């Protein structure tokens, strides 16, 4: 799993910054089945955090 190694984690985090809504949803769908394992991984936890923050901001901005 790419998000569980240092370079894969950084790559995914950087790509989430400029990803379209569709791309963010794709990442979410791929990560969620592995979220528990990623949350306890030294590098994967950053990806999970980034996904959660991006989803929160997206939904918050659409409510305003």
Describe, in plain words, how this protein is organized in 3D.
The chain is mainly α and 64 residues long. It has one domain (2-63). It contains 4 helices and no strands. The chain has helices at residues 6-18, 21-31, 35-39, 44-63. Helix 1 packs parallel to helix 4 (44-63) and helix 2 (21-31) crosses helix 4. The longest helix is centred in the C-terminal third of the chain and has 20 residues, at 44-63. 14% of the residues are buried.
Top keywords for this entry?
mainly alpha
N-to-C series of helices and strands: HHHH
Instruction: Write down how many β-strands occur, each being a DSSP E stretch of 2 or more residues.
Output: 0
Q: Regarding quaternary structure, how should these chains be classified? A: single chain
The helix-and-strand class reads mainly alpha
Radius of gyration: 11 Å
- Mean pLDDT, to the nearest integer, reads 85
Q: β content, as a range?
A: under 5%
Anisotropy-based shape: globular
How many H/I helices? 4
N/C terminus separation: 36 Å
Q: Can you summarize the main beta sheet?
A: none
Low-pLDDT sequence parts: none
Count of folded domains:
1
- What portion of residues is helical? over 70%
């Amino acid at each position: 799993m790419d998000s569980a190694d240092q370079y894969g984690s950084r790559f995914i985090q950087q790509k989430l910054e400029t990803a379209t809504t569709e791309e963010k949803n794709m990442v979410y769908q791929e990560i969620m089945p592995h979220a528990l394992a990623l949350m306890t991984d030294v590098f994967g936890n950053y990806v999970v955090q980034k996904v959660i923050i991006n989803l929160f901001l997206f939904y918050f901005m659409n409510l305003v």
